[in-house]
From TrEMBL:
<dbReference type="InterPro" id="IPR036852">
    <property type="entry name" value="Peptidase_S8/S53_dom_sf"/>
</dbReference>
<dbReference type="InterPro" id="IPR015500">
    <property type="entry name" value="Peptidase_S8_subtilisin-rel"/>
</dbReference>
<dbReference type="Pfam" id="PF00082">
    <property type="entry name" value="Peptidase_S8"/>
</dbReference>
<dbReference type="InterPro" id="IPR050131">
    <property type="entry name" value="Peptidase_S8_subtilisin-like"/>
</dbReference>
<feature type="compositionally biased region" description="Pro residues">
    <location>
        <begin position="38"/>
        <end position="50"/>
    </location>
</feature>
<feature type="domain" description="Peptidase S8/S53">
    <location>
        <begin position="293"/>
        <end position="594"/>
    </location>
</feature>
<keyword id="KW-0378">Hydrolase</keyword>
<feature type="active site" description="Charge relay system">
    <location>
        <position position="547"/>
    </location>
</feature>
<protein>
    <recommendedName>
        <fullName>Peptidase S8/S53 domain-containing protein</fullName>
    </recommendedName>
</protein>
<dbReference type="GO" id="GO:0006508">
    <property type="term" value="P:proteolysis"/>
</dbReference>
<feature type="region of interest" description="Disordered">
    <location>
        <begin position="27"/>
        <end position="52"/>
    </location>
</feature>
<keyword id="KW-0720">Serine protease</keyword>
<dbReference type="InterPro" id="IPR000209">
    <property type="entry name" value="Peptidase_S8/S53_dom"/>
</dbReference>
<feature type="active site" description="Charge relay system">
    <location>
        <position position="333"/>
    </location>
</feature>
<dbReference type="InterPro" id="IPR023828">
    <property type="entry name" value="Peptidase_S8_Ser-AS"/>
</dbReference>
<dbReference type="GO" id="GO:0004252">
    <property type="term" value="F:serine-type endopeptidase activity"/>
</dbReference>
<feature type="active site" description="Charge relay system">
    <location>
        <position position="302"/>
    </location>
</feature>
Length: 720
């Protein structure tokens, strides 16, 4: 049995948390020693913070509970609402249980004196049960990595072959080519300007028969734009400069041109960069200037569509319901995903679709929602029928915002019939796009499931994860930062991520946190019904999930095929290659090849060199993507992490530093590692980056951790 997932849904003012059924994944672990218990340390209580410095917050019942422990006992703890001077003190702590406010909040527990570098544990208080917060004062140790040892990001796009002459080649440093300025290079020197660096640079440049001009640089770096001597070969000149001991590195200088196409303006009431921020985030307005999708066909296999909605009915060229006999949507999910992909635009109605001139094949494979439930499941036999019919009707793209029921029916994630149908569709030249799944954080089932769900996990399918915006109350799309959501499933076969939304609470009303688009005007479940369903185009809903990210990628695939010449002009592999190769790097280890960029994907198909993305080169892994941890096992690829507060590893700061203060006092000897899990599979394997301190620490004393150098992991790696 297949089953549809919904994610978080807001409709007609009532939030609905719909059932999510996803495939489970397992993990291994290594052995660990069990040392004898050392004698308890002599208490060295930290001073109690001065009264009156913070406003006391009540411990409200109903939230998560936190058991606070420390070695030695008697250490003062401050509970702070992160970023605010609001706190509660716990003095003389031995074992104290804290129950913060019941609403989700970001909290920080600080052990020790607030004026003397307290050990801080930051947690997301989300009403999710009991936790233990621990501090080992005698064993509190700090370390750092050599940030320059971080290697170029090992994303598959760096090794893509067969790209056209006008398509991007990331990770390649070239000093020649149409996009490179051959008259100058950027030279980074080893000595800072204030320490005589400018004089050293002038001597180097004089010896090379040229001169340079200071260039803006990050703190601690001195660099200059240096002219290439007349008649000199830029590549050879750069190589000669790089060979000098005073020079740290040499970079090409690139040309920039205005965007080669202006954005296409749409006039739909909600077609703006706040209500439909996701279209602008993906670059659809520029993509539409290359193609609006005329002639392309998307097949949406879901809960059907609202055929009463003229923004959708005008796009439907065929519809069928395999269970109900009609494609009319009684749920809302199918209407939402289809409208994200193809809703008509430039009219008086609400929303625009990513491929607004693309035609739609609408398939309803689910039973009708009822008055008491909208969590129906579908049979993969009906899904297979729909896939086969879509191929026969010359669909260019099949969009699947649905997933397996493996969490509820163990070992039933993989389905042979579904697999064969998907494989046959891809072999017939149809691009298949599917949602990665919404349970990476265990928010739906209580157990995290990080690996890709089916059908997204099948070979050849473009698996789509979800990104979201991190905003404040006054932020706009332009001022927000983007990240991969904690619920978005991932793994080696993840294609890209696209906006899926990540609302901070069920009562949130900011469209920047959701994907806002149509829902059905004929919902059966009371909480899904729109209060004013007439006309049908007045019925809309807030959704969040990988289901909503998927039709954005499907729309881009359809636009690409239309631009390339229509049905059969681009193979599914070629579509995936271009989408992967033109994605934006948002510096998240679970982003796959990056976040969807519709503009660059269409520019690549059009051969528009003015829109090609060429850098940065090389792409570095950010220290913020690393975790440090204490471990005892060796010889395997899955570390047994000892850290109490950070069982998945302690986040490394952007400066490359970390602090280990949560190894149990009774743990005995341990080692320290730092890890970047490139494919997110929980194993230290090829393509990851890893570094070991190379010393044996003891949990009862501060450890002197030498600076750690990171290296790319090769096949056959085992933990030292």
């Amino acid at each position: 049995m297949g089953a549809l997932w919904f994610g978080l849904v807001r409709s007609s003012g009532a939030l609905l948390v719909m059932g999510l059924t996803l495939s489970a994944c397992g993990g291994g672990g290594g052995g660990s020693s069990t040392p004898s218990t050392p004698a308890a340390p002599t208490p060295t209580p930290s001073p109690t913070p001065a009264p009156g410095t913070c406003a006391t917050l009540p411990a409200t019942a109903g939230g998560s509970t936190y058991t606070l422990t420390s070695d030695p006992t008697g250490i003062a703890v401050t509970r702070a609402n992160a970023g605010k001077l609001q706190c509660t003190y716990f003095t003389g702590v031995t074992t104290t249980t804290d129950a913060p406010q019941s609403a989700p909040n970001l909290w920080a527990y600080e052990f020790g004196s607030l004026s003397n570098n307290p050990f801080t544990v930051t947690i997301q208080q989300t009403s999710n049960g009991p936790h233990t917060i621990y501090y080992n004062q005698p064993g509190d140790s700090s370390g750092a990595i050599v940030t320059s040892s971080l290697q170029s990001s090992q994303r598959a796009v760096a090794s893509v072959v067969g790209l056209g002459a006008n398509e991007p080649h990331r990770g390649v440093r070239r000093f020649t080519g149409t996009g490179v300025d051959p008259t100058q290079v950027l030279v980074r020197y080893r000595t800072l300007a204030e320490s005589g660096g400018r004089a050293i640079a002038s001597r180097v440049e004089a010896a090379a028969g040229t001169r340079g001009v200071d260039a803006f640089a990050p703190a601690g770096i001195y660099q200059r734009f240096v002219a290439v001597p007349s008649g000199a070969d830029t590549t050879s000149f750069a190589s000669a400069l790089r060979s000098r001991t005073e020079v740290a590195d040499v970079f090409p200088v690139h040309k920039r041109v205005p965007l080669s196409v202006p954005p296409t303006t749409i006039i739909d009431p909600h077609g703006n960069n706040r209500d439909q921020w996701y279209l602008f985030d993906d670059g659809f307005p520029y993509a539409w200037s290359y193609s609006k999708g005329d002639g392309a066909v998307i097949a949406s296999i879901d809960t059907g569509v609202d055929l009463k909605n003229t923004d959708l009915s005008s796009k439907v060229i065929y519809s069928i319901g395999y269970v109900t006999g009609s494609a009319q949507d009684t749920n809302g999910h199918g209407t939402n995903t289809a409208s994200i992909a193809v809703a008509a635009t430039n009219n008086a109605f609400g929303f625009a679709g990513g491929g607004y001139n693309v035609a739609l094949l609408a398939y309803n494979i689910f039973p009708d929602a009822t008055a008491t439930s909208d969590s129906q499941t579908a049979s993969t036999s009906d899904e297979v029928k729909a896939i086969q019919d879509a191929v026969a009707r010359k669909a260019d793209v099949i969009s699947l915002s649905l997933g397996a029921a493996a969490n509820y029916y163990p070992n039933d994630g993989f389905d042979q019939g579904e697999h064969d149908a998907v494989e046959a569709a891809i072999a017939a030249g149809v691009t298949v796009v599917a949602a990665a799944g919404n349970d990476a954080d265990g928010s739906e089932t209580g157990t995290p499931h990080t690996s890709l769900d089916y059908p997204a996990a099948y070979d050849g399918v473009i698996a789509v994860g979800a990104s979201a915006l991190r905003t404040s109350a006054t932020d706009t799309l332009a001022s927000s930062t983007e990240y991969v959501t904690s619920y978005s499933q991932y793994g080696p076969n993840l294609g890209v991520v696209a906006p899926g939304g990540d609302p901070p609470s069920n009562t949130d009303q900011d469209p920047l946190h959701w994907i806002w688009n149509y829902s059905t005007s004929t919902a059966n479940y009371a909480k899904d019904k729109c209060s004013t369903p007439s006309p049908a185009t007045s019925c809309s809903a807030y959704f969040a999930g990988t289901s909503q990210a998927t039709p954005q990628v499907a729309a881009v695939a359809a636009l690409m095929i239309a631009k390339a010449g229509g049905h059969g002009s681009l193979s599914p592999a070629r579509v995936a290659q271009i989408i992967d190769g033109t994605a934006d790097n948002i510096n998240d280890p679970h982003q796959g090849h990056g976040r969807l960029n519709a503009y660059r994907a269409l520019a690549s198909v059009a051969g528009d060199s003015g829109a090609v993305y060429t850098g940065p080169s090389p792409q570095k892994t950010s220290p913020g993507q690393l975790v440090a941890f204490a471990y005892q096992n060796s010889g395997g690829v899955t570390p047994t992490i000892l850290d109490v507060d950070y069982p998945a590893g302690i986040p490394v700061s952007t400066a490359g530093t970390f602090r280990i203060g949560d190894v149990p006092y009774t743990a005995g000897s341990y080692k320290v590692g730092v890890w970047y899990d490139a494919n997110g599979d929980g194993k230290i394997d090829a393509g990851d980056q890893f570094g070991s301190a190379g010393v044996i620490c003891v949990s009862t004393a501060k450890c002197t951790i030498p600076t750690i150098t990171m290296s790319v992991v090769s096949a056959g790696f085992v933990l030292p």
